[in-house]
Structure formats: structure tokens, C-alpha cells
Design a protein that fits this description.
SH3 type barrels, OB fold (Dihydrolipoamide Acetyltransferase, E2P), six-stranded antiparallel sheet, five-stranded antiparallel sheet
Length: 185
Amino acid sequence: MALANDLRKGMAIKYNSNAAIVLEVTHRTPGNLRAFVQCIIRYIGTGKSADIRFSSTEKVDLVDVSRTSLEFSYSDHEGFHFMDPVTFETITLQSDFIGDAKDYLTENMPVEILYVEGRAVSVELPPSANLKVAESPEGLRGDSSGNVMKPAILETGKAINVPLFIKEGEIIKVDTRTGEYMGRA
């Protein structure tokens, strides 16, 4: 048991007898009223989000959380295969579980898998990924005023906008949180 004031992003709690991950926490003290903690949580079983309030002195049940560092190996019709670099065990996760993270996964990329009560609940990518540009049209001469971007398709199939000077075959750095171009790698 912990106080609602002690909640932080990434913690797992039990709410309405269901395990949930805390996505956002805001401590509020409105005027002359009592302080409260407003949280956005995502239920692990259903994947639905909820906006809830706790009194700052209310007790909440914490759930055991563990993180495991794995390396992405490959994907096939069975799912996405990850390997533990220490024990060399292979773990297979389904594509619906991976979600948008599949757009950034390349061979040997380190990721963290979050486990709650012994069950994998989310994949955490590094903040940026180095990806190769697979397709990109040539930039038109004279289109250089301002910050002009063009579409590009990366080796994973993700489409993003890149500056005109990026050519096919170049390795670029992409922000995994926003999906935006960060620079050349």
C-alpha cells in the first residue's frame, strides 16, 4: 500500500480490482479545497484508459512490476521474436501487442519489456532509432526556401517527412516517441 501522493508515471496499481499502468500523474491543490491527485491509467487486461482522482492521503494498492532488457531478433508470421542477451532465451510477442513499435524495430535493437504480475504489458523503445531510407523521391531544384520536407519510406515501412537533401540508402535518426526526423545518423 502506498499513498496516492507517491504515485509516479510507469507505476502499476490495482484499481477496481484490475491491474493498471499509471500513464500521467498531476498533483492539484485548487484554491481553499483539499489537495488531490489526478491520474490517467490504462487497464492491462482491456487496454482502455481512464481518468481518475484520488485524495492525496488515500491509499492505493501497488502491483509488482519488472523490466527486462531484450534484443529484437526478427519477425515472421508467428510474431516478433526477442532474445535475452544474457540467457539467450527467445520470447515471441504478437503483432497486436507490439503496436506502433514495429515501425522502429531493427535487428539487434535493445528494448525493454515491462512485466506486471509476470505478464508482458508493454514494449519500451529507446528514445531514437537509426533507420535506413528505402525510398525517397529526389528534391526539386529551387524548393529550398524555408524548411521544405519530402516524404520518405524507411526500411521498416514507416513513412515520414525528411529534408530535401536526404537520399535513398542514407541512415537517419528518428524519434521513436513522435516519429519525426531528428538528423543524419
